[in-house]
């Protein structure tokens, strides 16, 4: 019995030695919040140099308002202490908005960018990750979102070919949901087009036409349609999608 015990002890000791991590090896550290904000700031300043002055202006503006209120109530020290974090918050808010715009500027013109623009929509919207219609030869694409305003089709590529693609998709959907309003948004910077950074805002401003229950019903009916064409190699909505956490500094 004693020999058996000694043998077990020696085996466990050997296991402990071999399973022990080298002293020099360190666990990879996750980027802290401040480091993420710094990375977002560098990316944003590279695409939008004015963000620095806007952030400084927002910070100093909040400080000025806080001091003015403090002098009026004869307690400027307390108001300054309150205004400093509020000023920092205002500066970070400006950075967040400008960072999102800079992220869209970076992916502008890439295949799948319209799907990335729609990904900003969240509550109350049902989004298709992949395009619902594609021209595999010229890579025009149509992405779809369903919400309270009805069906929103967002196109990318040549305006004429993208319009024809969207019209074909509209006719297909009208066979299944004939009374649901369909809005087509053409992305781009030309006349009648909407920049990527304003696609979500444009969709949100559309008048409401459906209830939440009707949105779910429309999505269920349209899901049976699927996509008409296979997705070409150049379109990858996940690759074109901006990092939402990064743009918010999280």
Overview of the molecule:
The protein is elongated. Strands 1, 2, 3, 4 and 5 form a five-stranded mixed sheet that branches. It has helices spanning 2-19, 33-47, 51-72, 76-107, 113-118, 159-176, 199-204, 212-223, 237-240, 244-247; strands at 126-127, 133-134, 141-147, 150-156, 182-186. Helix 2 packs across helix 4 and helix 3 runs antiparallel to helix 4 (76-107). It folds into two domains: 33-107, no CATH class; 113-242, no CATH class. The chain has 250 residues and is α+β, with helices and mostly antiparallel strands. The model is unreliable at 1-22, 229-241 and 243-250 (pLDDT under 50). Helix content is 55%, strand content 9%.
- Using the CA coordinates, give the radius of gyration: 27 Å
CA distance, first residue to last residue: 59 Å
Mean pLDDT: 78
For the record, the count of structural domains works out to 2
Low-confidence blocks of residues: 1-22, 229-241, 243-250
Question: What portion of the residues fall into strands of 2 or more residues?
Answer: 5-15%
Taking the sheet with the most strands, its summary is: 5 strands, mixed
Number of strands: 5
> How many helical elements?
10
* Helix share bin: 40-55%
Net shape: elongated
H/E element sequence: HHHHHEEEEHEHHHH
Task: Briefly note the structural class of the backbone.
Answer: alpha+beta
